[in-house]
Design goal:
about 200 residues, alpha+beta, three-stranded antiparallel sheet, two-stranded antiparallel sheet, globular, disordered C terminus
């Protein structure tokens, strides 16, 4: 576990996170009929002179303040970028149209920041990347989705075979710190991703 081995850094000051109990239980909806209960771990900054803040550590398959797993949310965002309508996406996801519209609206609100963040990620992990090679799609939403894919592909190339079992959706969740659909633009960063749990 990355938390136990000291691989996780405090997002505020860069200090090492140490185990610090658990957060309140929450429910995660994997399919329309399947909901499971999880209890996320907490970590606290343990660096001498560090910030001392504690953080809830979400599993790779979750996003902050979202009940649905990231694979369902990301598939809906990709489908919207490909031009599918609300009703069809909602039917495919097995979720109400209002829920899907909420995901799309939040992603749209920060699409340009997300695109820039994942472009920086791509450049950081793949110094030889041609940052101009992506053809604009005509919308900020679709451009952001395409750039997220390019950033994740670069991370996969840089990390090698260890990430092949990690889905793009899980990489998106990890690199956005679980806040892809947060109220503020996510701080995108390359993170150590392995095939085990993120906690």
């Amino acid at each position: 576990m990355q938390l136990m081995s000291g691989e996780l850094a405090c997002p505020y000051c860069g200090g090492r996170l140490a185990p610090w109990g658990h957060a309140a239980p929450r429910f995660v909806r994997e399919t329309a009929e399947s909901v499971r209960r999880i209890r996320p771990r907490r970590g606290i900054c343990s660096r001498a002179g560090g910030c001392g803040r504690s953080h809830v550590l979400l599993p790779r398959f979750c996003l902050g303040r979202r009940v649905d797993v990231v694979s369902v949310i990301w598939a809906a965002l990709v489908a919207r970028a490909e031009g599918l309508g609300w009703r069809r996406i909602a039917a495919m996801a097995g979720r109400p149209a209002s829920t899907v519209r909420g995901w799309v609206a939040r992603f749209s609100a920060h699409a340009e920041s997300i695109r820039i963040g994942f472009a920086r990620l791509e450049h950081h992990v793949d110094r030889g990347a041609d940052m101009d090679r992506l053809t604009p799609t005509g919308t900020r939403f679709s451009d952001a989705v395409v750039q997220v894919g390019a950033g994740c592909a670069a991370l996969r190339r840089a990390a090698g075979p260890v990430v092949f079992e990690v889905s793009v959706a899980q990489m998106v969740a990890a690199c956005s710190g679980g806040w892809l659909l947060g109220s503020r633009p996510p701080a995108v960063a390359a993170v150590p991703i392995n095939t085990g749990p993120r906690l």
